[in-house]
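S.,

Sequence below, as promised.
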Amino acid sequence: MLHQLRTSLFNSLVGKVFYGWVVVGVTSLVMFGSGPGQSHLIGLFFDPISAEFGLSRTSIALAYGGATLIAALLLPQMGKFVDQHGPTRTLWMVIVGIGLSCVLLSFANSWLYLAVGFAALRFLGQGSLMLNCANLVSHWFERRRGFAIGCMALGFPVSIALHPPLVQGMIEWLGWRQTWVWLGLATWGMLLPPVLLLLWNRPEEKGQQPDGAVAPTDGAPPLKVTGLTLAEALKTPTFYIIAAGLATLSMLVTALHVENKGILTRHGLDPQMAANMFAVTGVTAAIAMPLVGRMLDRFPTKWMFLGGQLIVAASLLSVTFVSSLWGAVGYAMIFGLCNGIGMTYISFMWPRYFGRKHLGEIQGTGQMIGIVGASLGPLPLAIAIDATGDYDMTLRFLAFIPLTCAVLALRLKSEAPH
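The prediction came back faster than expected:
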């Protein structure tokens, strides 16, 4: 019954538009729905949890960082599962798990419970949802992959813009426990129907080709899906340069998301206004993502990668000079560009250099490295605020990491190695 309904919907849409754009639309909605597993939302719960449990900022950051690290180590297995069973089947299972994790986190009563809950949300929301969405779009597009990924990732800045002000208000009105319950229910209601009804793994399984290209005529051999294996990819310097750059992006963007409210309140903003700056960041990222994606399709990858690292450094430095509301808006715009770059690059780089035949496994390993970076991101800032009461010197020191990655980016080849 479900298969028949899916097929009927596919047939009704395929004559009107290349179906890859339907996939982009659904995955963009899923990216928005990944908010409960993302740092910009989870970080809002740190203060009320700290107040209720009597935990220091560092201990909560350790729970969050450890949870993110555990989640990262599971992603290569998720990548293999995606290669074997397809992202469509995997995605609805992940969504069920995210909603359940949100509901169960509302019953947290200890540091260990929090750590396990954070691990589930990070693995399913920040890791698995993104991996599956990127995998789907990468299969449906090749020539226009950068632009398509930029459009897919638009759901993330919309989450940045809408989730923090909304969730901050819910926490103040309902309390942090009830807020988690409503987030879980909303995740199921919003994401399960379109994922179950509208997504298909690859264009080839529906008689189409990436980008809407004309399918082979009868008797012609089908176009082969090519790409390196994970073992082959691991033998190339390119893999490690990309992994280092993306891990840096994940680490430092996560640090700024988690500590956004803390940093900006110490620069003079009240907590609600600090949360509202996410709206500026989200709008800027939403504008930037399709443009960044189109630029990735047109310009040499190594120069794009280098520029992205410079924007990360600019984000870290600019927030230390905020002294007014307009200064915070300026920083939020730079950070929005940083978010747009990071989300687009994470999905684009792996198929760009290593093909899509074994994409799930390579993406899973690459995202594992990136999320290991994310697990470390909040710790330096949490330690700094507990030890010195100040973030700024640590932020300026951290800016040297993306600057180093910018130099390494010069070693990237402009063309895929296969």
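The domain at 18-206+228-409 is CATH 1.20.1250.20 (Growth Hormone; Chain: A;).

Coffee later?
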